[in-house]
Amino acid sequence: MTPTHFSFTSAFILGLMGLAFHRTHLLSTLLCLEGMMLSLFIALSLWSLQLNVIPFSTTPMILLAFSACEASTGLALLVATARTHGTDHLQSLNLLQC
Amino acid sequence: RLLAWMGLEISTMAIIPLMTQQHHPRAEEAATKYFLTQATAAAMILFASLTNAWLTGEWNISQISHPLSVTLTILALALKIGLAPMHFWLPEVLQGLNLTTGLILSTWQKLAPFALIYQIAPNTNQTLLITLGIMSALIGGWGGLNQTQLRKILAYSSIAHLGWMIIILHFLPNLTLLNLTLYILMTSTMFLSFKLSMATKVNSLATTWSKTPPLAALTMLSLLSLGGLPPLTGFMPKWLILQELTKQNLPITATIMAMTALLSLFFYLR
């Protein structure tokens, strides 16, 4: 694995771990999601630069647009949760336990 | 492949407003959990295909050849549709929604990931698929035993059904599609009959006898069909899958699957 590949792989895995093991705030989960998307964007740009494939040069922009949409959806859900539950602490998300 | 990822994300985003239409805190909590899991899975799919592109130079999702990428893609797709061991979001999310939205979630949302799964079927790791399938069937059977809420029962039954579908994927992908179609039909029947009788707990199902006896009979029949008893349609995919498994010299797997079907049947019949 080249150092570039290793760096963005580790960035993605770090974001994934942060997403999986978030403890108190829901916002940190959204931040980790954005971090993962960003590492994917960097990887995609570097890949299309390195291999000189022309048809895929627009994909980083499309990825960026979609990750922005995802982030806005997540934020809207966060606002809705804050409106009904009061905080965004994870302990309050236990209404659906059996 | 980029279009696949975009399609998955668009479907996720489209379902979220549907889920939050009911301004109940449970619904919004369910929507939040659902969104998080689906977005994570979509990002993992993209990451797997990107890793594959770096390592082998192949961007088409049906020709992923690196074993690590294939494993990661399968895991991400399993998270999307709710296979064990990544099934933890499914009962809670289904519980928080009303019945129509839950119907759309269980049936329509499974179509897109299954299209992807069907495409990458020839390259997959057989041991991983069998492990996932057996675990799903087991957890789907055991988890549903103590439930009284109807939507959670349906969630666990869908986990078990998905386990059946995944097991046969490596050998005969067309059987997976058949199982998926029949599962969609049966689950839609169940959801619609529950919606008509407005029942959300097992106790309130008992009142349907006095209201509309034909509907109660239909519900019982479709429950039995979900369980997979011989004279009903639900038995056909299970029989074909078991036949295919024994043809490939995997009798132990076939026995385990048959026994987990018994588990689900037990909690259907309550």
From TrEMBL, chain A:
Coiled coil: none annotated. The keyword Transmembrane helix applies. The gene is ND4L. GO terms for cellular component: mitochondrial inner membrane; NADH dehydrogenase complex; respiratory chain complex; transmembrane transporter complex. This is NADH-ubiquinone oxidoreductase chain 4L. Belongs to the complex I subunit 4L family. Keywords: Electron transport, Membrane, Mitochondrion, Mitochondrion inner membrane, NAD, Respiratory chain, Translocase, Transmembrane, Transmembrane helix, Transport, Ubiquinone. The chain crosses the membrane at residues 6-22, 29-49, 61-82. InterPro entries: NADH_UbQ_OxRdtase_chain4L/K, NUOK/Mnh_C1-like. It comes from Arapaima gigas (Arapaima). One of its GO terms (molecular function) is NADH dehydrogenase (ubiquinone) activity. It holds the Pfam family Oxidored_q2. Core subunit of the mitochondrial membrane respiratory chain NADH dehydrogenase (Complex I) which catalyzes electron transfer from NADH through the respiratory chain, using ubiquinone as an electron acceptor. Part of the enzyme membrane arm which is embedded in the lipid bilayer and involved in proton translocation. It is found in: Mitochondrion inner membrane; Mitochondrion membrane. One of its GO terms (biological process) is ATP synthesis coupled electron transport. It catalyses: a ubiquinone + NADH + 5 H(+)(in) = a ubiquinol + NAD(+) + 4 H(+)(out). It is a multi-pass membrane protein. Its EC number is 7.1.1.2. Gene3D superfamilies: 1.10.287.3510.
UniProtKB/TrEMBL annotation, chain B:
It is a multi-pass membrane protein. GO terms for cellular component: mitochondrial inner membrane. The keyword 4Fe-4S does not apply. It catalyses: a ubiquinone + NADH + 5 H(+)(in) = a ubiquinol + NAD(+) + 4 H(+)(out). Its main location: mitochondrion. Pfam families: Proton_antipo_M. Keywords: Electron transport, Membrane, Mitochondrion, Mitochondrion inner membrane, NAD, Respiratory chain, Translocase, Transmembrane, Transmembrane helix, Transport, Ubiquinone. Belongs to the complex I subunit 2 family. This is NADH-ubiquinone oxidoreductase chain 2. It comes from Arapaima gigas.
